[in-house]
Amino acid sequence: MAAQVTLRHLAFSMELIVQVGTLKLKIKTALNELLELSEVINGNRHELNVLKVNVCGTEDGSPVAIRTQLLSGTVSISAIRALHDGAEETITVSPKDIVIISLGSTTSGSSSGTNNDPPLKKTMEAENELDENWSIWLDLATQNPTFGDPYNFCTRISESRLESFTVTLKDPEFFTRFINLTHDRPGLGTFVSLRDSNWMISICIPRQPFFSSQPGNIKVFWGYGLRPDREGNFVRKPMLSCSGEEIMTELLSLLDFPLASILRNSITIPCVMPRRTASMLPRNRRNRPNVIPDGTANIAVIGQFVDIPDETTVSLDYSVRGAHR
Fold first, then answer.
1. With contact defined as beta carbons under 8 Å apart, do 188 and 182 qualify?
2. How many beta carbons lie within 10 A of that of residue 175, not counting itself?
3. Is there a contact between 153 and 279 (Cβ–Cβ < 8 Å)?
4. Residue 184: CB atoms within 10 Å
């Protein structure tokens, strides 16, 4: 028995040594890669010249124009017409330049309300409320299909719409009751979904204070509804037509919390985002371009609407990974 225990301990020790050795090798490899990257950056810093362009459109109100050319079967950007330092100009792009473009926007067309008023309905339903990131993508896709199909994502508002709300509390009653109900401490990063909610409400209680300048007696949290077009369980109208106070009333009623005392000490701001979940809409493999689009030379695209194999969109990590490539 003693020999078996000794052998078992020896085997465990050898396995641990192998794991530590592997970890050291990985750390050493990572450090070497960082050193190599540092040398590349430092060695080529004098060759790098970044030009920041405000792509908010031209003086005549037309969208930013990106001119592409096809040479020997390869697509490249040859010129950009935009506003630079407040003046309209055409920027010539050489084959040696690199143009990085952010495609689409999940916050395009967003509309905010107040504690007493719902978001403006006209804005939230306008399919032409597209910002510059969409305009650029639409322009590129019109010129060449290698840039994907933005229409698959920007026009399906009934499928991609989401309404969020942020709540500021001047009294700890809501937090105290919520912690007693869920047995979760603020800041765990989990969403609590109310399965019986017609609006499909989920809320998140972050660690307090959430803001560096947040007073000690103030609490904040946020939530969203996936089906804001539906009539509420208690507030008998669509979430889209509700003020912040009405949304808070619905939430408190679902949780069976008292209304008067909490509403009196809360401010709720609703925000409708017509394309918030657009990046998760069904698509085919040609709808999203690769980070370096097929058959292109001096172009890279980033954001939530580029295709990165084996990665999940929506998170900030996705945009970072696209830029990292």
1. no
2. 15
3. yes
4. 12
Distance CA 251, CA 219 (A): 16
Residue 314: both structure tokens together: 């929506």
Q: Are 166 and 112 in contact (CB under 8 A)?
A: no
Average per-residue pLDDT in the chain? 81
Structure tokens at 70: 């096809």
What is the signed CA dihedral for 16, 17, 19, 20, rounded to 10 degrees? 110
CA atoms within 13 A on the CB side of 142: 9
Whole-number pLDDT of residue 128: 59
pTM over 0.85: no
Superfamily of domain 33-108+130-155+282-324: FAD/NAD(P)-binding domain (3.50.50.60)
Bridge partners of 88, per DSSP, are 83
Number of helices (H), then strands (E), in the chain: 9, 11
3-state secondary structure of 192: strand
**Are the C-beta atoms of 220 and 165 separated by less than 8 Å?**
no
How many angstroms separate the most distant Cα atoms in the chain?
A: 88
CB atoms within 10 A of CB 8: 10
**Location of structure tokens 């967003």:** 110
CATH architecture of residue range(s) 162-273: 2-Layer Sandwich (3.30)
What pLDDT shows up at residue 123?
52
Can you read off the two tokens belonging to residue 90? 């055409």
Q: Can you read off the two tokens belonging to residue 147?
A: 């840039």
Of the listed ranges 67-71, 108-112, 154-158, the one predicted with least confidence:
67-71
Q: Per-domain residue ranges for the chain? A: 33-108+130-155+282-324, 162-273
Distance CA 153, CA 150 (A): 5
Nearest to 194 by CA among 186, 203, 182: 203
315 — phi, psi (to 5°)?
Answer: -75, 160
